[in-house]
Please model this.
Amino acid sequence: MVAVTQESTGGAARTPFIAGNWKMNLDHLQAVAFVQKLQWTLKDAKHEDGSVEVGIFPPFTDIRTVQTLIDADKIPFSLGGQDLSTKDSGAYTGEVSGQFLAKLDCRYVIIGHSERREYHQESDEIVAAKVQAALRHGLVPVICVGETADDLEEFGASAVPVGQLKVALEGVPADADIVVAYEPVWAIGSGKAATPDQAQDVCAKLRAVVGESLGADAASRTRVLYGGSVKSANIASFMREPDVDGALVGGASLVVDEFAAIIRFQKHVGV
Model:
């Protein structure tokens, strides 16, 4: 099977990225069982490794265990952290440095998730500082942006996420490797996803922001994900859109068969 890639107007192929954010779920023993079962499920379904990049974002306490398993069994999953500190080291009790994540072979780190913005009062400026911290340690920031139901009613679908991304990209080098994730807060965990047209409209605008901030090449190669009540029944409709390059999956990433079906979207995407 030929790998399905998304293409922008610039023509650069982008490998689809399906990322599972486990949030505060699964201890390190449960994580081992989950990752093994996910890999077996994909193998049994004859999923072609490399056609889609699979990323998993466990809690901090699971990362070392999952890293060891991935290395030992040569499992082709990328590993990421769910957050990081703006600081590299020091007297910051409870914080986790990007340096620590990098030493555990994490490639990615989620930054600016709506739950961090809401529950921990993370401002756009803190998100921008965390992006810089990730880049200092060779991590790829998965920059989350999105609007609440009130924002949607007052400003429309794209104004808030566009503004958030502009701040997050301040000072980012043009050649930096980043991922952008559009997560409409009103859709997360609600069972009510954005429509494919809504996702495409906002993702296209976010790609334009990347172009304005980092240049056309960056806009062409940067993957823009959709997140918010993603499941196997709707992933194909999102992946048909030219500016949607994957998904940041929450609850559905904790169910092996469901997450495996999302990863295998190419079987039913019709492209």
Notes: The chain has a mean pLDDT of 93. Strands lie at 6-7, 13-14, 17-21, 53-57, 77-81, 108-111, 140-145, 179-182, 223-226, 246-249.
